[in-house]
Amino acid sequence: MQRIAIVGAGIGGLSAAARLGKMGYAVDLYEKNPVPGGKAVEHRQSTSSGSFRWDCGPSLMTMPHILQDLFAFCEERMEDHIPLTPVDPACRYHWTDGTVIDEDRSFWNQPAVRKYLDYAEGLYALSAPAFLQRPPRDWWKALGAEMIEHIKHLPKFMNMQSMATFNQKFFNDKHLLQIFDRFATYNGSSPFKTLSTFAIIPYVEASFGAWYPEGGIARIPEQLALLAERQGVRLHYNHEIHDLNALDASIRICNGDSITAHQRWLPQSHEGRNMLRHDLACSGYIMQLGVRKQFRELEHHNILFSDHYREEFDDIFVKKKLPREPTIYIAISSKRPGSTDAPDGCENWFVMVNAPATTPLDCKGYEKVVFDRLSKFGIKLEAKDIACCNSFSADDFERQHNAWKGSLYGWASHTMQTALFRPPLQHRQHPGLYFTGGTTHPGGGIPLVLLSGKIVSEMVLQDFPHTRFTPMPAV
Fold this sequence. Notes:
Elements: E1 3-7, H1 11-23, E2 26-30, E3 42-47, E4 50-55, H2 64-73, E5 84-86, E6 92-94, E7 100-102, H3 105-108, H4 111-132, H5 154-157, H6 163-167, H7 174-182, H8 200-208, E8 211-213, H9 219-230, E9 234-236, E10 251-255, H10 258-264, H11 270-274, E11 283-291, E12 301-304, H12 309-317, E13 328-331, E14 347-355, H13 366-375, E15 386-392, H14 394-401, H15 416-420, E16 433-436, H16 446-463
Parallel strand pairs: 1-2, 1-10, 2-9, 6-12, 10-16
Antiparallel strand pairs: 3-4, 5-8, 6-7, 11-14, 11-15, 12-13, 13-14
Helix pairs in contact: 1-9, 1-16, 2-16, 4-8
């Protein structure tokens, strides 16, 4: 029996583990932390006001059919283990001029937005079967008869305009323009540098909705770990691996930062040297706040926009410093009906500002910048209003998650190469070594990371066939 060792029980590693276990491989999964999840974990803290809980990484998910597909592959129902509820509005956007826009059904049905989505639908129709569902080496397998009608959308991928320049063709309203520019940050990039092909991101959110699991995002890796164990996978927690080459297995899968893996564990690799030539996706400055009051003007997900958006990204990607006037993201899961994530009369704030991927990063006193900026929106917090405050920055992401320079997604998607050709899923010099996670193909975010695990499991089956497993017919 082929033995497989997976390093890292993040969502990508768990996705690969469950599928490979179902295929009949002998799988060992090693995780340095006491719980699964990688960045998708939670933090709880007791205070004099009561107990608070925060999602530490992703705060919603889309494309739930990808998660359903994983459970179906293992002959189970996702709904029996991870109940999802819609997030509506998916986000509330705020500006200092008093404008507030909710991202709900009426938002997506505006004429200008509808026209934008019609354009982006062609990007998705062409890229989903060729890019999202296959490794780059097999993209040509998507060129069946059903793809002929979508070939007409190919020139859209050759459009070398930035997302910000492209968006100006669709939106005259400065508020809508800023909303659609903001989708570039979903993969840690600047809208003024990333390519217009990423118009696919708002299309995905509009088409598949925003969803939240009962009990928090951490329930997803928690249940995926149990699913993997039911397929015979052996999970080893509190077990850190420092050398991929030392693993006693013919097939190795690294579910971690691909850049870090190549620099630390494969230092002589030609691929590793090339990885340092590209812009890094942004990091984040994060505060977990236990707030002793409630704000009716805020929703579960909120964006409070900078008045000088381009300058903000210049600070992050050019000057490599924390933005002087940041856009602020606030997630408050205690807004969910029936939530116990904060005591009565309180809220659990996950506050995030995009930050440069550089370590060490001087964040001393930056919380005052954030609080001062919040006051411009009429949101005022005094010391007595805060039951607890925990802060995190690029240095913490590098230390806790082995994220190179604290980057949340590896490469920024600022060129055609980094947008369409992420660090590879398989090492060229070591064919038995594979990679999953948000820093490799097809990209970051829960759905794409789940797909990375699926694609790698299919590559393993193709490269190292298991004679006792017959793949299910395609649906």
